[in-house]
Fold this sequence. Notes:
Residues 118-163, 256-283 form a coiled coil. 87% of the residues lie in helices and 0% in strands. It is mostly helical.
Amino acid sequence: xxxxxxxxxISLATSAKIKSQSPQKLQAxxxxxxxxxxxxxxxxxxSMAGGSVQELLDAIEELVNDLEDGLELLDFNFxxxxxxxxxLLVQLNQQIxxxxxxVSRSDDVIENLLIPRKEQLELRIAxxxxxxxxxxxxxxxxxxxxxxxxxAYEAQVxxxxxxxxxxxDALTLLSTLNNPSLAQVKKFQNSLKKIESSIKPxxxxxxxxxxxxxxxxxxxxxxxxxxSQIVNTLNEFRNAIVDSVNDLSLQEVxxxxxxxxxxxxxxxEYAEFQRQINALNVDLTATLEKIDQVTLFRDQRAADQxxxxxxxxxxxxxYADEVQIYNDTKNEFQREQAxxxxxxxxxxxxxxxxxxx
Length: 357
């Protein structure tokens, strides 16, 4: 019986709202719908079967209580779902904001710290590599200069050695002169010209040679005094040549030592540049790895943000559907309550024997 009445009451939920009316008017209203006629038919059958009115009233009252309990449970469950929804919204919004902050901070670190540092390191490395290139150019220049200086030194020494040999020839010739013939004098003068040709005009030995040639010109070599002067001059000339060779050799040693010291200095500078480049490359590698790490973290947090936003949208859509279901269900409960109250009123006020469908 309780199930039948519940079905009838639910069916009446879609009917027009009935205001407080007289039994005749209420019966007339119920006759207008199939659900109303079904209710009247049930009441008629109950009356014909001699059923207790109180039993019908108790069943309807129990139905009313069940509807109230169901509405309370509906409200309780909806409130709990609303609380869960609001909590989830707070959680998702916090996660979205956290992801946004991480993305923003990562972009700031990359753009304002890591990228400028990377560019700075690359510029410093490029500058040091340019210094190294300039350093090697200086080494090449120093090598070329030293090679040219050494060649000049060897040429000068060779020239002086040739002059020494010529002087020795002249001294040997003079030692054999005793009432020299014209041919011997001519040979001696040729030796002097050979010495002259081997000495550069700007050489410091040129004055000695000039004095010797002047002295030897048109001289009577039979005069021992003249011979002695020429021999002395030649010896002084030879000593000057030897001193020049010694000076050149000493200068060559000093130039070679200076060259080696300069090359050592340039090599040390090059090694220092390379040490700095190696250190900067380590720093650059670490910076590039950091950029990759921060970029990966940023991309992950951006993906997290998109996922949270999607979850938020899905939750809002789901909750909106649940709100609609809740409102529809609550309205249905409320209509059922109203119909149940109307049914209770009808059963309480109508003489079943007068009801006909």
